Amino acid sequence: MRKLAFLAVFALGVAAAQGDGEKLAPYYPTPETVVNKMLQLGELKAGEKMFDLGSGDGRIVIMAAQRFHAEAVGVELDKDLWKSSMDKIRKLGLDKTARIVNGDLLKQNYSSADLVTVYLLPGFIDKVQPLLDRQLKKGARVVSHDFEFSNWTPEKSQNIADDGEGRSHTLFLYRK
């Protein structure tokens, strides 16, 4: 029941965010335990390149660079979140392996990605899917948080019990 209430609030936030016609989702920070599980499920290895679509405060990018020693790139449309993320990356001394692109995630090139992480509602996942279909190389992985890609079959899924915020999470792993 709590997950349904969360999804209703999340959807209302998306509807409000869509007023400018650009945002694909509102900012909602992923709990650190879920971030770690996303990167583990995606089998992220040192030296690989990963992208986080709609990177928010940069927590997935930062963890990928810090703990997994990956080359991590986030894409964030919101200028304030982008600036705050980049400030955090510089303060942590991660600017050689982590960065955030301030731009539209539908206008980026993901052909170098080994792993892509996403947390978008189903309608917006459907907008991203054709781009990833065209650009991702063979063997690239995609981890989606809570929402499935409608035309892809997950290789694995993982349920995560209540994260302390009163709701559970589901992760989906896809491989190109």
Describe what this molecule looks like in 3D.
It is built from 5 helices and 7 strands, in the order H-H-E-H-E-H-E-E-H-E-E-E. It is an alpha/beta fold and 176 residues long. It has a single domain, classed as 3-Layer(aba) Sandwich (Rossmann fold), CATH 3.40.50.150. It has a 7-stranded mixed beta sheet, covered by helices on one side. Strand 6 (156-160) and strand 7 (169-175) form a beta hairpin. Helix 2 (32-41) crosses helix 3. The longest helix has 16 residues, at 2-17.
Features:
single chain; 176 residues; alpha/beta; Rossmann fold; seven-stranded mixed sheet; 5 helices; 35% helix; globular; disordered N terminus
Task: Give a brief rundown of this model.
This protein has helices spanning 2-17, 32-41, 59-66, 79-91, 122-135, and strands at residues 49-53, 71-76, 98-102, 115-118, 141-145, 156-160, 169-175. It has 176 residues and is α/β, with parallel strands linked by helices.
Which helices and strands, and how do they pair?
Elements: H1 2-17, H2 32-41, E1 49-53, H3 59-66, E2 71-76, H4 79-91, E3 98-102, E4 115-118, H5 122-135, E5 141-145, E6 156-160, E7 169-175
Helix pairs in contact: 2-3
